[in-house]
Amino acid sequence: MGSAELSLGRILGVRVAISWGLVAVGAFFTLTLALEQYPAAFPGRSGADYWLAGVATTALFVVSILVHELGHAVVARGDGVGVAGVTLWMFGGVARLTSLPRTAGSEARVALAGPAATGVTSGVFWLLTVLAEGSGRPSIAATMFDWLARTNLLLLALNLLPALPLDGGRVLGAAVWGVSRRRDTGLLVAARSGWLVGAGLGLFGIVSVQRGSFEGLWAVLVALFVLSSSREAERQRRDRKSTRLNSSH
């Protein structure tokens, strides 16, 4: 494990780590919520209420990411795919696999396990929102659970975009692999789709930033991440193809 990661031990038998980058982002997020967002939305409460809500929101958001990645890891192990562990970082998380799924069906199951877990998480937070709103008065807890439910739903939609390394891209690759009987063909189609999706996200982010939306900056960062990952996937495909050709001579 690298020095840029903080080990959280094992959960469900899976080694879990969190990057220091996510710790820094989480700290900034907590400060923003506790000192600005919650005081503005619910004036007159004690400082302890705002800090408790800020820490709880950040912690539950990180737990949401963890649940998503554990979904991948648990299903991967069930399909006989080696799992080195899970790392949570600024753009979400990654399940580190030590081997590849052997079939297109297995690839699709592993890819879809994360979004399925996120969908369940969003539903749980929605139910908690309904329960917290039972008093009929606006509350910090109801606002927190509502934000977590909506954010997980947004992450679900984002992860299903057909672009590597997002889960939707892996599902697309698995579908093409199943039809063509060639893993490389599925990878190529998913990578090329990633170029299109990344370009679209980047354009959306730039327009949003120009209109004063801070969220647009995240869209640009995600777009750069998608474009970089798609390029790397194509490079790996070329390297494997070159290796096979050289070994056949």
Topology readout:
Layout: E1 5-11, E2 14-19, H1 20-41, H2 47-78, E3 83-89, E4 92-97, H3 104-132, H4 140-159, H5 167-180, H6 183-210, H7 215-248
Parallel strand pairs: 2-3
Antiparallel strand pairs: 1-2, 3-4
Helix pairs in contact: 1-2, 2-3, 2-4, 3-4, 3-5, 5-6, 6-7
**Strand percentage, roughly?**
5-15%
What coarse outline follows from CA principal-axis ratios? globular
By helix and strand content, what is the structural category? alpha+beta
Strand numbers in spatial order across the main sheet: 1-2-3-4
**With helices defined by DSSP (H or I, 4 residues minimum), what is the helix count?**
7
**What's the pLDDT, averaged over the residues?**
85
H/E topology pattern: EEHHEEHHHHH
Number of β-strand runs: 4
Helix content: over 70%
Low-confidence stretches: none
Q: What would you report as the Rg, rounded to the nearest angstrom? A: 20 Å
Largest beta-sheet details: 4 strands, mixed
Distance between the termini: 39 Å
Task: Tell me what the structure shows.
This protein is of the alpha+beta class and 249 residues long. The protein is built from 7 helices and 4 strands; from the N terminus they run E-E-H-H-E-E-H-H-H-H-H. The protein has helices at 20-41, 47-78, 104-132, 140-159, 167-180, 183-210, 215-248; strands at 5-11, 14-19, 83-89, 92-97. A 4-stranded mixed sheet has the order 1-2-3-4. A hairpin with a 2-residue loop joins strand 3 (83-89) and strand 4. Helix 3 packs antiparallel against helix 4, helix 5 packs antiparallel against helix 6 and helix 6 (183-210) runs antiparallel to helix 7. The longest helix is centred in the last third of the chain and has 34 residues, at 215-248. The model has no long low-confidence stretch (mean pLDDT 85).
